[in-house]
Design a protein that fits this description.
binds iron/sulfur cluster; single chain; 5-stranded mixed β-sheet; 233 residues; two-stranded parallel ribbon; Lambda Exonuclease, Chain A; 20% strand
Length: 233
């Protein structure tokens, strides 16, 4: 009884509404999947257990912030800080901290032991997100703090701001936005279908239907509607 009710709670709250602007987590992501998100295209639902893991990640953030707020050698200047409002992207960093000399944007990421143990450098997609925080906060240094969900072990990496990388990420999102407005489904990413983004992509099935290359959304939309009804993705 409880299991079904708890699962339903998560599934009902699953965010699959139309998206109107980019989130920091969209930085560096497949333009086609972003297009489908904006158009609220049919997607494979996430399992309730995966959604619970996201919630678990939030609790881990609180666990990390607790000591940081008490340690004298580090000062939490602000936590859960929104990036300044602008047209293209929104996001909230975990914290901005100071060691008395420098400010750092802190981004906390949690992962299972299997991934954590192999981690010898920060993940590229996490650097992308952090670069945008550094850009919008105008802070030249950031820290990616990884937490092992199974053992609660920690690894940290310092990242310097790269204006070139941040501007390129913003330009890519602007380009994707133009395609969204023009109703042009972008091409697949280069590494399709082996890329990690494809392996976890909720739009994988309709992406397969769309095939390679750019296509018009208006005509593709009709094909997906038929597919949704018959295949119930
Ligand atoms: S399956 Fe891969 S290429 Fe297709 S939308 Fe998803 S991430 Fe992009």
């Amino acid at each position: 009884m409880l299991r079904e009710l708890i699962d339903k709670f998560y599934l009902d709250n699953q965010r699959n509404k139309e998206q109107n602007h980019f989130y920091i987590t969209d930085a560096g992501r497949c333009a086609r999947s972003l297009f489908f998100k904006f158009k609220n295209a049919p997607r494979k639902e996430m399992e309730a257990s995966v959604l619970r893991l996201f919630d678990h990640g939030d609790h881990i953030h609180q666990l990390i912030m607790k000591p940081l707020l008490s340690i004298r050698d580090i000062h939490v200047v602000a936590s859960e800080v929104n990036i300044p409002p602008q047209e293209i992207i929104s996001g909230r960093s975990d914290a901005i901290v100071s060691d008395g000399k420098n400010l750092y944007v802190l981004d906390i990421k949690s992962m299972n032991s299997m991934i954590f143990d192999k981690l010898i450098e920060p993940k590229e997609e996490n650097i992308d997100q952090l670069q945008l925080y550094l850009h919008y906060f105008k802070i030249p240094k950031g820290i990616l703090l990884y937490v092992n969900k199974n053992t609660l072990g920690l690894k940290e990496f310092f990242v310097d701001y790269s204006q070139e990388r941040a501007l390129s990420l913003i330009a890519s999102l602007q380009e994707t936005k133009k395609k969204i407005d023009a109703g042009l489904v972008p091409d697949r990413i280069q590494g399709y279908p082996a890329d990690w983004q494809c392996r976890y992509c909720q739009f994988r099935e309709i992406c397969g239907m769309a095939g390679a290359g750019e296509i018009k959304w208006d005509s593709f939309k009709d094909r997906i509607e038929g597919f949704t009804k018959s295949a119930q993705i």
